[in-house]
C-alpha cells in the first residue's frame, strides 16, 4: 500500500472525502485549529480573494488558500497534489457551515450551554472540548462574541469537524439570527468610515454629465446587492469595474464609495475586506 493510498483511507483526508460525499465543503486545519496560510501569490489577499472552489472568481490558486473559502466538496481538489502536503501535516478537518446550508452556534463554556438550553430550540448537538456546537439548518451572517462564550459560524466562516453529533436538526430560529444583529451606537448610524484613499488621480474628467457616474454607482450597488453567492469576488470585481471607469479622472468622491461599501457591508462583508478589495483593485489598475 502506497503512502498516497493510505492517506485516502485513514485520517483527515478520509474524513474530508466522506464529508464531501455528503455535500459538506471541508478543508484541512494545522496545529492550533487554524487554516494553512495563503501561498505567496495570494498573500495579503493580493489576488482579490475567492468565495469557494466552485466559483473561484479572480483567484485560480489550486492550493489550500483563503481559509474557509478553500473548503470544497470536489474530491479531485481534495486529492490533488497541491493539497497533499497540507493533508500530511493536517491536525484536524474543518468545514464551511454556510456552504452546507448550516449554522453552528458555538457555545464555548458551561454557562453558554446553559443559556442556549433556556433560549434556543433543541437541535443537533456536537460536544466540544469546552462546550457544545448547536447545529441548525439555515444560513446567516457569522459573528464572534455575540454574547459571552457564544460565536456564530455560518457564512464566511469555518467550524472544526468533531463528528455528526446527536439529535434532530432544527430550522435556524429567529433567536439565533438576532444574535448577529447589533443596534448602531448613537454616534454611528452608518457603516464604518472608509480608511482607503478614494479619490482619483486628479485628471480631467471625461464624463460629460454626473448622471453617467451616478448611474454607474447605482448599477454597481445593485450588482453587489443582488449577489447570492461569490460575494467576495463580486465586491472585488465591482470595485475593479468602477475604478477602471472612474478611477483616473478624479470624479469619485468619498460619498460615492461609501455607497458601495454600504452595499458590501449589507451582504456581510467586513470593513477590512472592503478596504482590502478596494486597495487591491487600485493596485491592479496601477492607481
Brief synopsis:
The chain is an alpha+beta fold and 287 residues long. The protein has helices spanning 3-9, 11-21, 75-78, 81-89, 110-119, 174-177, 210-225, 231-246, 254-266, 271-285; strands at residues 26-30, 34-35, 92-95, 102-107, 124-127, 132-137, 143-147, 150-153, 159-160, 170-171.
Could you explain the architecture of this structure?
- The protein has 287 residues and is of the alpha+beta class.
- The chain contains 10 helices and 10 strands.
- Strand 5 and strand 6 (132-137) form a beta hairpin.
- The radius of gyration is 21 Å and the shape is globular.
Give me the count of strands.
Answer: 10
Oligomer: single chain
Strand content: 5-15%
User: Structural class, judged by helices and strands?
Assistant: alpha+beta
| Major pleated sheet | 6 strands, mixed
Order of helices and strands: HHEEHHEEHEEEEEEHHHHH
Rg, Å, rounded: 21 Å
Distance between the termini: 55 Å
Apparent shape: globular
* Residue runs with pLDDT of under 50 for 5 or more positions: 1-9, 51-57, 184-190
Helix content: 25-40%
Mean pLDDT across the residues is: 81
- Our count of helices gives 10
How do the helices and strands line up, and which of them pair or pack?
Blueprint: H1 3-9, H2 11-21, E1 26-30, E2 34-35, H3 75-78, H4 81-89, E3 92-95, E4 102-107, H5 110-119, E5 124-127, E6 132-137, E7 143-147, E8 150-153, E9 159-160, E10 170-171, H6 174-177, H7 210-225, H8 231-246, H9 254-266, H10 271-285
Parallel strand pairs: 6-10
Antiparallel strand pairs: 1-2, 1-3, 3-9, 4-6, 4-8, 5-6, 7-8
Helix pairs in contact: 7-8, 7-9, 8-10
Amino acid at each position: 500500500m502506497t503512502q498516497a493510498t493510505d492517506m485516502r483511507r485513514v485520517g483527515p483526508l478520509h474524513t474530508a472525502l466522506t464529508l464531501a460525499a455528503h455535500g459538506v465543503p471541508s478543508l484541512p486545519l494545522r496545529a492550533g485549529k487554524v487554516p494553512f496560510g495563503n501561498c505567496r501569490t495570494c498573500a495579503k489577499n493580493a489576488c482579490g480573494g475567492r468565495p469557494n472552489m466552485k466559483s473561484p472568481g479572480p483567484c485560480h490558486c489550486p492550493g489550500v488558500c483563503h481559509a474557509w473559502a478553500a473548503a470544497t466538496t470536489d474530491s479531485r481538489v481534495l486529492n490533488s497534489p497541491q493539497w497533499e502536503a497540507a493533508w500530511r501535516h493536517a491536525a484536524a478537518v474543518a468545514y464551511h457551515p454556510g456552504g452546507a446550508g448550516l449554522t453552528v452556534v458555538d457555545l464555548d463554556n458551561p454557562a453558554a450551554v446553559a443559556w442556549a438550553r433556556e433560549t434556543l430550540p433543541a437541535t443537533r448537538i456536537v460536544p466540544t472540548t469546552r462546550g457544545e456546537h448547536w447545529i441548525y439548518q439555515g444560513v446567516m451572517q457569522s459573528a464572534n462574541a455575540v454574547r459571552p462564550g457564544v460565536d456564530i459560524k455560518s457564512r464566511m466562516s469555518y467550524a472544526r469537524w468533531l463528528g455528526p453529533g446527536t439529535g434532530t436538526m432544527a430550522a435556524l430560529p429567529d433567536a439565533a439570527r438576532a444574535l448577529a444583529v447589533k443596534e448602531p451606537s448613537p454616534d454611528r448610524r452608518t457603516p464604518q468610515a472608509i480608511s482607503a484613499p478614494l479619490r482619483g488621480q486628479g485628471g480631467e474628467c471625461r464624463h460629460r454629465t454626473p448622471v453617467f457616474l451616478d448611474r454607474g454607482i447605482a448599477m454597481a450597488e445593485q450588482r453587489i446587492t443582488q449577489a447570492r453567492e461569490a460575494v467576495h469576488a463580486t465586491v472585488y470585481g465591482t470595485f475593479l469595474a468602477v475604478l477602471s471607469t472612474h478611477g483616473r479622472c478624479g470624479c469619485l468622491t468619498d460619498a460615492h464609495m461609501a455607497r458601495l461599501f454600504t452595499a458590501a457591508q449589507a451582504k456581510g462583508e467586513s470593513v477590512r475586506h472592503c478596504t482590502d478589495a478596494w486597495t487591491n483593485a487600485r493596485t491592479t489598475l496601477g492607481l
